[in-house]
User: What shape does this take?
Amino acid sequence: MAEGSDARAWEELIPDALGLIFRNLPLQEILTVIPRVCKSWSRVVLGPYCWQEIDIDEWSQHCKPEQLDKMLHMLIDRSCGSFRRLSVSGLHTESMFTLIADHAGSLQRLELPRSEMNDAIVKLVAPRLCNLTYLDVSYCSKIGACAIEAFGKHCRSLVVLRRTMHPLEVDRNYQCQEEEAYAIAKTMTKLRHLEMSYQPLTTQAVLEILSKCKDLEYLDLRGCWDVKLDEKYLKERHSGLKVLGPDIVDHYEQIFWNDWADSYSDSSGYEEAFDDDVIWEDENGIELDGFQVRFYGGGFSGVVTGFDWPPSP
Amino acid sequence: MAKMIKLVSGDGAEFEVEEEVAFQSKIIKDIVADADDVIPLPTVSSKVLIQVIEYCRKHAAVNSFPLSPSSSAAAAASSSSSISYSKPVSDPALRAWDNEFVKLNNSSLFDIVIAANYLDIEELVDLVLETVADRIKGKQAQEIRRQFNIENDFTPEEEEALRRENSWAFQNN
Assistant: This one.
């Protein structure tokens, strides 16, 4: 290897390595700065290596509907159908949903919070999402047990389901939410991680999930006020399971846990406020190896502070 | 006495390392399986090999004691579905060590990532690429070119066209 000169041919680094470097950058940088550095970097941004993971969640929360359509088409095109992860907020047309399903051959992680798809569409496209291992359908208010069951039936390798709902929007129809829980118990038996915050569930429904989803390691029930789980029972019968909630610790702020080290430094403002040792002093923390964990909280007076929820109508 | 493997750099220097250290490299692990204990690495200089071995030694010690059963379960789940999320290094001390390790100039990082890629040491490749991404983040194109010694092969017209190309997506900001 030439040791003499200090310059290295960064522009010629193999495309998949460059793709891996770029994909960690903010969307605006990948699309407007990187292509202008040099021709070979521009080519990488046009091609699939950069877009194996398409994360436009944050951007899509502020864009106009036609922009979302254009961006989705563009990035799915660039990935040449090889994207393994897609994270986008506020999907609102049937055609967007079918576009994704049409190219989901490699898709394993699908995050569609705040989407407006309904049960019928989900039933239609779920068969094409059969490789999913991770699904986030939080705040999707137009789907119910039917959609959950369709996902469960077709995504046989699902290990993560995030189905947090907006506490102010939840239809307090216990029947309906119960059905979702039973659909999960019936069809998603390989789940290891399940989030059902703010769903009006009963203890019975949760126990049904626990009895059928034997691999469950993490269960988020914050805001599920009617659920009463006996700690002793949990320790005896489900010792590998970590349960969060229903109670929410006061003085939470919303933080995003992208990795463990950051979580230790980010918690600096919170130590004095925490009473709940179970969450913070457990030396195992929440073992999610690369999964994102979002914490919601704050007083339950109906005032939401700094949460990522849809603006009130 | 631990089994030793001999690595020979491109410039002829020899390094004896414990098997578990050398096996951080999947390539070496495979070669040794074919009963070959002396491994020539013609494309890796001794300077880079020393750094790579240092990394492998540190991570071999940690990898022999996985942090917790559920983290390896989650890792198994994600590996069986062949997703390679950039797995965060869960041990803060190790992460701190890694951050010190990559305090190198861009040329050294380049050499290390090429070698790590060649030797198939996934965590080291990820670490370097993440570090490089951090150095690019927030910079303008010209600054990036300067930092990485990249020649601007666009004409001014081409560059201007590129500047406009995706601006539609960010006009709300």
The two ends of chain A are 62 Å apart (CA to CA).
